[in-house]
Amino acid sequence: GQWCTRVPLICFGTVEWHLPDRCLRQFGREQCIPLVVPESQRAFHGRDGRQGTRDWPTKLKEFIAIWENRQLQDIVTPNQVGRMGYHDPYLDRYRQTSVRYMTPEGAADGALADGVERIKEITTGRNDLGNEDVGFIRRIANSLLGCIRAQGRDHRRYPPRAAPPPPPVQLDVPAPPPPYE
């Protein structure tokens, strides 16, 4: 479909890039490492026309040529099956280049998930764990419990409570019109 075409969208002197390779997971596709937008192609991003660009077809001929050959710009990846692995190349790059946590709660959730993943990675298929490994695993587990406590969550299970009843539904039904005589 056209949604997976990586092209510049042109409106007179303004160029905005449509970059589907940055959000393929939203569409159920396998996420690849996004391509870099060349610096020369960022020059017209967000222009509002007040700069006096009247000859935009000439100035934007490079972008127009890309648009005219848009069928060559499709991002084709297979459908995503299951979850991405912790060491998927995209996720490794994401952890190196992105701000992962916006809130303390998000950081605690992320540290918890990373810690559990690390414990799984260390212990999978291992029957030869020594005291040093056990101590390391114990430190990771304590760190995870600290994350849970920092969020005010208790790791013990309690019986579920019943949900509160929904508010009563009030319908304002108009009175029927009087019959005609």
Describe the structure in your own words:
- This protein is mainly alpha-helical and about 180 residues long.
- About 35% of the residues lie in helices and about 5% in strands.
- It contains five helices and two strands; from the N terminus they run ββααααα.
- The chain has helices at about 55-60, 60-70, 90-95, 105-125, 130-150, and strands spanning about 5-10, 15-20.
- The chain has a two-stranded antiparallel sheet.
- A hairpin with a 2-residue loop joins strand 1 and strand 2 (about 15-20).
- The longest helix is centred in the middle third of the chain and has 20 residues, at about 105-125.
- This is Aminotransferase-like plant mobile domain-containing protein.
- It comes from Linum tenue.
- InterPro entries: AminoTfrase-like_pln_mobile, MAIN-like.
What descriptive keywords fit this protein?
181 residues; mainly alpha; two-stranded antiparallel ribbon; 2 strands; AminoTfrase-like_pln_mobile; Aminotransferase-like plant mobile domain-containing protein; MAIN-like
Unreliable residue runs: none
Secondary structure category: mainly alpha
Mean pLDDT: 76
Share in helix: 25-40%
How would you describe the shape? Answer: flat
For the sheet with most strands, the description reads: 2 strands, antiparallel
Estimate what percentage of residues fall within beta strands.
5-15%
> Could you spell the SSE succession in H and E letters?
EEHHHHH
Give the beta-strand count. Answer: 2
Radius of gyration: 27 Å
Distance between the termini: 61 Å
Strand order of the largest sheet: 1-2
Tally the helices.
5
